[in-house]
Amino acid sequence: xxxxxxxxxxxxxxxxxxxxxxxxxxxxxxxxxxxxxxxxxxxxxxxxxxxxxxxxxxxxxxxxxxxxxxxxxxxxxxxxxxxxxxxxxxxxxxxxxxxxxxxxxxxxxxxxxxxxxxxxxxxxxxxxxxxxxxxxxxxxxxxxxxxxxxxxxxxxxxxxxxxxxxxxxxxxxxxxxxxxxxxxxxxxxxxxxxxxxxxxxxxxxxxxxxxx
Length: 212
Prior knowledge:
InterPro entries: AB_hydrolase_fold, LYPA1-2/EST-like, PLipase/COase/thioEstase. Keywords: Hydrolase. By secondary structure, the chain is of the alpha/beta class. It has a single domain, classed as Rossmann fold (3-Layer(aba) Sandwich), CATH 3.40.50. It has helices spanning 79-97, 110-121, 144-150, 167-176, 197-211, and strands spanning 13-15, 23-27, 49-53, 57-58, 66-67, 103-108, 128-132, 153-159, 182-188. It has a seven-stranded mixed beta sheet, with helices on both faces. Helix 1 (79-97) packs across helix 2. The radius of gyration is 16 Å and the shape is globular. 40% of the residues are buried.
């Protein structure tokens, strides 16, 4: 039985006209919420509508915020729970945006991992993904072969001083992503587990190209 609840449709924050234009779904990181990444939306191309969703799991009391999947120590990341959360995201996309809407994903940290996992579960559903300080979950999913054939555009940015994502996951992502995506990879010297102005500039260029 799944232990990850559905996303809260009432918690979604929108930016931009919801007039049928392409949507970028924003997926926050561990311990944050939907108010986090929506603050970046005014700095991103206005040809998209942006929808910031809230992760489905409350943080353990007394910590604020929400999570996509539990973490007990930096080395403990259950791939099954990551996949469950990606399924919940897919359900929200189908229910809220429908089957024909053009959709891209933009996630930070845990949200970045979920963006790639959702794309692996449904390779034809998403036009692109941006993975900021996240990673690709180890293991094999049924959609991996189709994803490798389609090679959708994926932006992956990370800092040289990011000590939150374990090195084995960074190494796995470095090996896995080029074979499954049209990868735009950027490494930012001195950046920790965060988003820098330079990364935002690169992200804007990536999103602008998706509009063209």
